[in-house]
Amino acid sequence: MTVRTLDGLSGRTAIVTGASGAFGSTTLTLLRHLGAEAVGVDRKPAEGVLACDITDDAQVREVVPEAVERLGGRVDRLIHYAGIGPAVDVGAAPDADVHAALEVNLLGAWRVTAAAMPALARERGRVVLVASLLSGLPVPFAGAYTVSKRALTAYADTLRVEYGTHIGVTTVYPGYVDTPIHDHSRAAGVGMDGTVPAERVRDTVLTVLRSAAAPRPPRDVASTGLGQSALRFTRHFPGAVDRIVTARLALLMRSGHFSDAEIARGLRERHSAAGPSAPPAT
């Protein structure tokens, strides 16, 4: 990707959520370098980043208008990165981690978009929502993240239908990127490191910026060529995805993966009881 493909961002105004994180901070820096005005929102304030807990209705109602005001009352682009990825047992009752994932990953984006919508619609702006390839490719112990990100894609689709006369909507699907969002699963002993192909922060950031700069908003786009192929495959062949993931998980169990993780104890027991030759459930 050349800088020329990002020329459409010069003179734009943008709000970025999750702006103190790896993706958001890099995006803010590049937006400003490209001649856009940008304001971030994040629980962790920084230079050019307003303190805001996007799970708090009152804070969103207060901070988003402040961000719009700082941008001169105009918002051309709203970019959503804010997200968390707790490790959970999807067979257990939803706990605080599950609720937090839904509040941040889905409802946080919904709240901020709603607060910014009057300004976005006036400017015929664009919303870029960062989902995940895991929205269509489930992996163990990422259930809260997977469910929230799949719900986010449904929100994007519905937003496009209801508000597509006045705003553009793009959903970006990164793969595995080594950022602090994985700290929780690593601490629980169920990190994905080494089990899936890795992408770089720049892959996602440049994909988001390209989507924000394009004359017409792309609908769904992954961060890499391999990711784009995976996105198409998971969309069109969900049954095959189930079988591949099930077979891959069985191999991981036999190789002792997750052997030290307490959260995986039930999974290990179920695979042991099923036996090595048991076919995947259908």
Can you tell me about this structure?
The chain has about 280 residues and is of the alpha/beta class. About 45% of the residues lie in helices and about 15% in strands. The chain is globular and about 65 Å long.
Poorly predicted runs are none
Give the overall form: globular
- CATH architecture heading of the largest domain: 3-Layer(aba) Sandwich
Structural class: alpha/beta
Distance between the termini: 43 Å
The number of distinct structural domains comes to 2
Helix-strand string: EHEEHEHEHEEHEHEHHH
Helix tally? Answer: 9
Instruction: Give the rounded overall mean pLDDT.
Output: 93
Strand content: 5-15%
Counting DSSP E segments of at least 2 residues, the number of strands comes to 9
* CATH top level label of the largest domain: Alpha Beta
CATH topology of the largest domain: Rossmann fold
- Please state how the strands of the largest beta sheet are arranged side by side: 3-2-1-4-5-6-9
Main sheet specs: 7 strands, parallel
The CATH H-level superfamily of the largest domain is: NAD(P)-binding Rossmann-like Domain
Helix content: 40-55%
Alpha-carbon Rg, integer:
20 Å
Annotation keywords:
single chain; 282 residues; alpha/beta; Rossmann fold; seven-stranded parallel beta sheet; two-stranded parallel sheet; 9 helices; 9 strands; 13% strand
